[in-house]
Each structure stands twice: as C-alpha cells, then as structure tokens.
Backbone:
C-alpha cells in the first residue's frame, strides 16, 4: 500500500470546522506544555547547580575596620579546624564582581564599608557540613566578637524544597494540558464520525471495511494534531531560545542564566511526534468502538 493511498480520504473532513479549529487549539496547548516542560527542566539544572555550589561552603565575615588586625589569625584558625578543606579570602576584584550587578560600574569598593569575606570549603555528610559550626563560632569569637559565620546550606535546602514544589506544579499543569489535548482529540473523533455517519454508511454499503474507514479517521486526526503541535512547539522553541539569548546578554543577579541543553531539544522534537501518535491511537480506539456499535 502506497503512502498516497494510505492518506487518501473518501470522507470530506476538509469541510469540518475541526479541520480549521483543532490545529489552532492544539498549537496553543502544546506550545504552553512545551514551555512548561522546558521551565521544569531549567529549574532542575538551576537547583542542581546552586546546591552543588553551596553545599559544604561556609562564609566568614570580618568587619572592614577589623580585618587588617585579625585576618591572619582567622585564616589560621579556619585551616586548623577539623573538616575544613580549603580557605579562600575574597580579593577586592572578586568583591567588585559580586557587587557590580547590583550597584553598577560607577562605584569604588574603597568607599564602601564592605566586610572581608572568607569562603570556607568543608567536607560534607549528606547535604550538611561536617564542621561543628558552633565550636567554630566560639573559636572565632575569642579572636574578635564582631566576626560572624554564615552557613547557607539550610537556606538553600529550603529554597530547593520550594523550587521542587514549583517544579512539580509546573509538570502537573503540563500534564493537564496534554490530557486536555487528548480529550479534545477524542471528542473531535466522535463528533466527526457522527457528522459523517451517512458517508460511512455508504462506504460500508460499497464494501469498505472498518479498517479502511478507521485509517481515514486516524490519519486525518494525526495530521491535524501533528500540524497544530508542530506550530505551537515551534513558537515555544523560538520563545525559549530568545529567553536563553536574553539571559546571557543581559546578565542579572536576580534571574539565572538559562542554557539550551540536549534535553530541551529532545522535548521540542519529540512532543509533536508524540502528539500525532497519541492522536492516531486515540482516534483509532474511539472510532473502532463506535463502528462496532454501528453493525
């Protein structure tokens, strides 16, 4: 059986309103679903990156006025602490790089009472540092009471939980949109069979088999769904690529850098195919059940 014969239609689907409306509606839903799926994947990458950067890192702050006096003693105490793997004193250029996104280029760090920051990389057990922070704080307070020790691990853990819930919500909405697409396809298939009941009856009278009729319904539905999904996902891909370019061009401390990964490409490529195959299968099952009741 040739491809043209496979797609040939004896049923006038082109006259139906669904022939024009169904692709547009599927384009909207599939496009939103694709964007939501890519957002969920981006959140996964961002959470993994931030957790990796922060886990086991403790930050020590020394007031600017006290740093010249006590910084050597603090660094020595930190390196002598069990569980500490590395101690890095942030230089002025590093501090300027951190503050420029917030304050702009027109400032001099010497004019600001910025404390000296020390990044302390420690060993980890699970997602927590192995260093006894209370003992470390007590040791540093003996050097100077104004020295503070900040563990960002608990804060990041709370943020990860919140973002994980947001990610689950995004995936749920995407799944609901795809479920709506499936329900719409089934409804259109049932409506089409009722609209073309006379044509189907005539085809039966002329000896057409159920498989022959099924093939026409399922391929019409698959083509409409695939075309609509391809348009919607194409627009979603363009929006996502624009967001990636904007995030790299206009770097902001508030918004994370978005990267285009192979998984994003897989979503954009496979979603139209998945929609078309789902439409084909759903239409076949729906129309076949209705045709059996016609005999």
Residues:
């Amino acid at each position: 059986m040739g491809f043209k014969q496979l797609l040939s239609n004896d049923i006038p689907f082109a006259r139906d309103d669904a022939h024009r409306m169904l692709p547009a509606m599927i384009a909207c839903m599939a496009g939103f679903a694709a964007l939501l799926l890519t957002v969920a994947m981006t959140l996964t990458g961002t959470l993994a990156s931030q957790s990796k950067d922060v886990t086991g890192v403790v930050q020590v702050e020394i007031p600017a006025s006290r740093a010249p006096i006590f910084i050597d003693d603090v660094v020595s105490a930190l390196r002598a602490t069990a569980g500490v793997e590395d101690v890095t004193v942030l230089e002025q250029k590093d501090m300027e790089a951190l503050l420029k996104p917030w304050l702009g280029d027109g400032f001099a760090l010497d004019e600001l009472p910025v404390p000296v920051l020390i990044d302390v990389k420690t060993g980890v057990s699970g997602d927590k540092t192995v260093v006894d922070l209370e003992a470390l704080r007590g040791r540093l307070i003996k050097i100077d009471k104004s020295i503070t020790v900040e563990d960002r691990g608990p804060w990041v853990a709370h943020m990860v939980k919140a973002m994980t819930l947001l990610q689950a919500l995004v995936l749920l909405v995407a799944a609901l949109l795809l479920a709506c697409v499936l329900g719409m396809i089934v409804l259109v298939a049932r409506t089409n069979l009722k609209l073309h009941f006379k044509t189907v009856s005539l085809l039966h009278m002329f000896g057409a088999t159920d498989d022959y009729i099924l093939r026409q319904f399922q391929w019409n539905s698959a083509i409409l769904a695939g075309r609509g999904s391809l348009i919607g996902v194409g627009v979603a891909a363009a929006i996502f690529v624009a967001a990636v370019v904007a995030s790299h061009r206009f770097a902001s401390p508030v918004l994370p850098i978005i990267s285009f990964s192979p998984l994003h490409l897989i979503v954009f490529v496979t979603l139209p195919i998945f929609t078309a195959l789902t439409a084909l299968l759903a239409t076949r099952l729906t129309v076949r059940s209705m045709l059996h009741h016609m005999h």
